[in-house]
C-alpha cells in the first residue's frame, strides 16, 4: 500500500526484561516496510543476545552496539544517523505499539503532506497491565503551545525527515532531550498534528526517571533554560503552564 520506509529508533540499556515484547509489537504491525534500529547503550544484561536472536529471524531488525554508555540522546542520534527511511518513528525498549500504529500514522501524514505527527496513547504498569485513563492529544501544536505542554509522547512521534531536515537530539545534562528535539523542529515554523486515537502503550516503571515527578519537572525547567535559552521570566511563565497541565494529567491517571 505504501512504499515509504519507516526507520524505528530504539535506544536500549539493560532492557532484557521487555525488549522482546517491544520487538514483537513492531513485528505485529500491519505495515511491513520498516527497519528497527536498536542501539544498545553498553548493557550489562542479556539485551544484546536477545536482539541478536531476533535478528536471525527478521533482517529488518538491526543492532548497533556502543562501546560505552552515552545516554539515550546519544543512542537515538546514532540510530538517526544510520536510518535509511524517509520517515522516523520512536519507540523505547519497554514501550509497545498497537498493530495499526504505523499504517494509520503513515497514511495520516502522507494524505496531509505533513512533517510531524503524534498520537494518543495509554499508560500501563510495569507488568503490562493497562490503566484506565488514555492520554488524549490536541489536533495540532505549534512551538509556543508545546512550551506550555509536554503532551507529546515520544513513543507516538513520527517525522518526515525530508521536511524536518537533519535532526539531532542535544544531550544536555538533566534536560528532556526528546522534548527539546520536538521544540527545535517546531521552532522552524513546522506544526505537529495529532491523531486522537490510541495507538501505543507507555510502560510506567517504578524506577524510571520519568516516574519521578520532581526530576521530570526539573528536566523541563532545564530544557527551557539550557536548550531553548529562554530568559527567567519566559521560563517561569511557561513552567507555570506546564505544571498546571502536568498536575491535571497525573490527577486523572
TrEMBL record:
<dbReference type="GO" id="GO:0016757">
    <property type="term" value="F:glycosyltransferase activity"/>
</dbReference>
<dbReference type="InterPro" id="IPR029044">
    <property type="entry name" value="Nucleotide-diphossugar_trans"/>
</dbReference>
<protein>
    <submittedName>
        <fullName>Glycosyltransferase family 2 protein</fullName>
        <ecNumber>2.4.-.-</ecNumber>
    </submittedName>
</protein>
<feature type="domain" description="Glycosyltransferase 2-like">
    <location>
        <begin position="7"/>
        <end position="130"/>
    </location>
</feature>
<comment type="similarity">
    <text>Belongs to the glycosyltransferase 2 family.</text>
</comment>
<dbReference type="InterPro" id="IPR001173">
    <property type="entry name" value="Glyco_trans_2-like"/>
</dbReference>
<keyword id="KW-0808">Transferase</keyword>
<keyword id="KW-0328">Glycosyltransferase</keyword>
<dbReference type="Pfam" id="PF00535">
    <property type="entry name" value="Glycos_transf_2"/>
</dbReference>
Amino acid at each position: 500500500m505504501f512504499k515509504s520506509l519507516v526507520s524505528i529508533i530504539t535506544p536500549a540499556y539493560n532492557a532484557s526484561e521487555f525488549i522482546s515484547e517491544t520487538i514483537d509489537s513492531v513485528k505485529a504491525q500491519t505495515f511491513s516496510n520498516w527497519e528497527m534500529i536498536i542501539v544498545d547503550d553498553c548493557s550489562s544484561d542479556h539485551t544484546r543476545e536477545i536482539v541478536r536472536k531476533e535478528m536471525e529471524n527478521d533482517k529488518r531488525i538491526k543492532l548497533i552496539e556502543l562501546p560505552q554508555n552515552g545516554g539515550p540522546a546519544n543512542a537515538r542520534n546514532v540510530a538517526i544517523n544510520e536510518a535509511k527511511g524517509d520517515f522516523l518513528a520512536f519507540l523505547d525498549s519497554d514501550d509497545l505499539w498497537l498493530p495499526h500504529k504505523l499504517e494509520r500514522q503513515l497514511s495520516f501524514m502522507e494524505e496531509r503532506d505533513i512533517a510531524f505527527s503524534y498520537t494518543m496513547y495509554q499508560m500501563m504498569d510495569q507488568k503490562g497491565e493497562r490503566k484506565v485513563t488514555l492520554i488524549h492529544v490536541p489536533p495540532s501544536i505549534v512551538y509556543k503551545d508545546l512550551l506550555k505542554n509536554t503532551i507529546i509522547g515520544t513513543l507516538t512521534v513520527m517525522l518526515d525527515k525530508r521536511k524536518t531536515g537533519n535532526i539531532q537530539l542535544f544531550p544536555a545534562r538533566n534536560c528532556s532531550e526528546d522534548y527539546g528535539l520536538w521544540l527545535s523542529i517546531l521552532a522552524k515554523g513546522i506544526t505537529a498534528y495529532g491523531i486522537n486515537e490510541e495507538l501505543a502503550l507507555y510502560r510506567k516503571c517504578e524506577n524510571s526517571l520519568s516516574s519521578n515527578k520532581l526530576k521530570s519537572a526539573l528536566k523541563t525547567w532545564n530544557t527551557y533554560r539550557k536548550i531553548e535559552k529562554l530568559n527567567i521570566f519566559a521560563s517561569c511563565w511557561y513552567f507555570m503552564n506546564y505544571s498546571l497541565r502536568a498536575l491535571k494529567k497525573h490527577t486523572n491517571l
